[in-house]
Write a structure and sequence with these properties.
2 domains; 7-stranded antiparallel β-sheet; alpha+beta; globular; homodimer; about 35% helix
Chain lengths: ~350, ~350
C-alpha cells in the first residue's frame, strides 16, 4: 500500500497521457477532478493486486465519450459517483476497490478522484495497459468477463443500467446513450473478483505512469533530453520526429476521429486516430499499429500530446511502445487490431 | 372482469388502430403476438379501474420505435417479457396488472399478449386516449408521475434500466437506445398505483376500441356505411375525403416522419405525421391538430389506415375526434400541442 497525494498528480497525469497513446481523455481536467477530491478527502490508498483480499469486488470507473467534447464540457464531479452507486445497487454489494479501465490522460485520474471521494483503495493496474476507445476493448473481454452490468451516468443526473448479450453490445448501447447525453458520460462496468483482477489486468500501470511522468519532469529539470529519457525507461522506439503540418478531425458517432500529418527529416508520417492513435504510416509504409502504443510527445519538453490537443505547428516526436503481449494473440488482434477500427492494414510489430 | 379471447382480437386491433390516430405501431403484427399468446395461454382477464385492489402495481408495457421499422422487423415475442421482468427486479415487486400506454394499432395488442403470457389481468384503460410518439407524452406526466424506472429490451436480449431526471430525458435516452438497437424495442415504464391509475389514465379505452372495431365490421356486414357508423359512435367529424396523391416519409431519429396529401371535392388536405397524424390542413387552413385525434380510414371499408401503411391511390376519409379534455389544458398543450412536435401552428379545436 502506498499513498497517492497532491504532489503525485501531475507526474501521474503526464505519464498516463503518454501511455494512453494520445487518448483516454484530457489529463488536465482529470487532474482537476482528482486534485479537488484529494484536497477535500485526503490522499488515495494505492494497493497492488497481491494486497487484494480474495473476496474483493474491483470496479473500473471511467469517462466514456469523445475527448474533443470532454475538454469543453466539464463534469460536475458527481457523475462517477452516480455510476458507481447505481452499479452497487444492481450488484447488491458495495465495491471494495476501484481501478482504472485504461491508462490514459483523463481516465487514469477519474478513478483517483472517485477513490478519494469514496475512501476506497485504488488498485495499481488497468484493463488495457494503454487506452482504447471502446468499452469492450479490455483484456477481461479476452477472458470472457462481461462488461455488464454496466452503468452510465451523465452530468444532468440521468443514469442507465445496461445488461447486454455481448461486450460489444454493451459498448453500442452505452455509446448511444453517450451521444444523446452530450458525448461525455461516466461509467462503471466490467466488475472483477480478486482472481479475475490478477489474471486479466495489466499490473502496476498506475505506478509506471507516475514514473514515466516523473522521468520527463526530472530530465527537463536536469537539462537532459526528456524524450530520450522516457523512451529509454519504457523500452520504446522513436518512429519519427517533425512538425505537425495538418490535422483533420471530426467528432462522429461519439468518437473523435481523424488524421494528423507530421513532416520531418525521415519523411511524412501520417497518424490515424480514433480517440487514440491507432496507425502510423511513414512515407506510406505502415510503421506502427494498434495494439502497440503510438505516443506523441512535444520534442522539446517531452510533454505528451493527446489526439484532441494536436495542432498545426507542434514539433513532436512519435514513439512506438510495445503493448501488453496478450493483445497480440489472435483473439487480442481480432478485438483491437487495425481492422477492428476499420483500417485496412494488418498488425505490424514495432521495429526492434 | 371480462375475458378477451381470440374472436375479440380483430375488432380490438381495428378499433385501436383507428383511435391511434394513425400510429401506435402496426395492428396486424400486434394481433399476431396477441393471438399466439392467447392460443398458448388462454384468454386475458380485462378489469376495470374499480376492480383494482388498493395495493395494485399497474405497469404499462409497449413497443417503442418507428412504425415503418416495426412492420418489417418482427419481435421475437420475448422482448416485452424481458422489459417487464427487468422492471420488476428494479422495483423489487411484481406487477399485479398490465395496461396499454396508448391506444394504437400495435401498442394496444402488446399488453394483451403480455397479459396472456404472464397471466396478469389487463386494465381497461390507457395513458393517452390515443397514440403519441414519445414516452413522456402521457397523462401521468401532467400529474408529475415519473416515466422511470423505465426498462428497454431489444430483440437480441439486451436490456437497459433508465433512471432519468425528467420524463423527457427518459424518452431521449430510450430513443437513443432504440435507434442503436434497430428502431424497435419494448419498454415497461410509468408504473402506477391503483389511485394513480384511476386519476391519470383514460378509462375504458380497450372496450371502446373493441366496440369501434365491431361497429365498422357490423356496418360492413349489414351493407351500411362503416365510416358513418364509427364516426357516429365516437362523436367525430369528417374533415375531408379523397384520394391519396402523395406520401413523403423518412425514418429519422427513431421516428417515421412525413406528410400525406389527399385530393378530394373539398380541396387538398395535407396530413403531417410523426408516427401519428398530428396536423391536418385543408386548402392551407389548419382544420385539426394534435392532441385531437386525426384518423384516416378507407372510405369504402372503414378500415383504419396507419401512417406507415398510407399509400398513393388509397381512397380515404379523414376524421377528427376530440381528445381527452385533460390534453387541452395549458399543461397538456405544452406537452403534446403542435409546437411540441415542431409545427408552427397553435392548437385548433375541431369544427363543432
Amino acid at each position: 500500500m502506498r499513498e497517492l497525494d497532491l504532489p503525485d498528480l501531475d507526474d501521474l497525469a503526464r505519464g498516463a497521457a503518454l501511455l494512453g497513446s494520445g487518448g483516454g481523455g484530457d489529463p488536465y481536467i482529470g487532474t482537476l477532478l482528482a486534485r479537488a477530491a484529494i484536497t477535500r478527502h485526503g490522499p488515495v490508498r494505492v494497493v497492488t493486486v497481491e494486497e487484494l483480499p480474495p473476496d474483493a469486488l474491483v470496479v473500473p470507473v471511467s469517462m466514456l465519450g469523445a475527448p474533443t467534447v470532454g475538454v469543453e464540457k466539464l463534469p460536475s464531479g458527481k457523475e462517477v459517483h452516480a455510476a458507481l452507486r447505481a452499479l452497487e445497487r444492481v450488484l447488491g454489494r458495495a465495491a471494495t476497490h476501484l481501478v482504472a479501465i485504461e491508462i490514459g490522460g483523463g481516465n487514469s485520474m477519474v478513478p483517483v478522484a472517485a477513490a478519494a471521494e469514496t475512501g476506497l483503495p485504488l488498485l495499481d493496474a488497468d484493463a488495457m495497459g494503454r487506452a482504447f476507445p471502446e468499452a469492450q476493448m479490455v483484456l477481461p473481454t479476452l477472458s470472457g468477463i462481461s462488461t455488464t452490468p454496466m452503468t452510465v451516468a451523465d452530468d444532468k443526473g440521468n443514469t442507465a443500467v445496461i445488461d447486454a448479450v455481448s461486450n460489444h453490445w454493451a459498448e453500442r448501447i452505452a455509446r448511444a446513450i453517450c451521444g444523446e447525453a452530450g458525448c461525455s458520460v461516466y461509467t462503471a462496468d466490467t466488475v472483477l473478483t480478486a482472481a479475475q483482477a490478477r489474471d486479466t489486468l495489466v499490473l502496476g500501470t498506475l505506478t509506471l505512469a507516475q514514473r514515466a511522468g516523473a522521468t520527463i519532469r526530472l530530465a527537463r529539470a536536469g537539462h537532459a533530453d526528456p524524450v530520450r529519457a522516457v523512451t529509454d525507461l519504457l523500452g520504446g522506439a522513436v518512429l519519427a520526429a517533425g512538425k505537425v503540418v495538418d490535422v483533420s478531425r471530426a467528432t462522429t458517432g461519439g468518437f473523435a476521429r481523424g488524421e494528423a500529418v507530421v513532416h520531418g527529416p525521415d519523411g511524412t508520417l501520417v497518424l490515424s486516430f480514433q480517440n487514440e492513435h491507432l496507425v502510423a504510416r511513414l512515407a506510406d509504409r505502415v510503421v506502427a499499429t494498434t495494439p502497440d502504443l503510438i505516443c506523441v510527445v512535444d520534442t522539446e519538453t517531452g510533454e505528451p500530446v493527446t489526439t484532441e490537443a494536436l495542432r498545426y505547428g507542434f514539433r513532436v516526436t512519435v514513439l512506438g511502445l510495445p503493448c501488453d503481449p496478450r493483445w497480440t494473440s489472435p483473439e487480442g488482434l481480432a478485438l483491437v487490431g487495425p481492422p477492428a477500427f476499420g483500417y485496412d492494414c494488418g498488425y505490424r510489430p514495432l521495429p526492434s
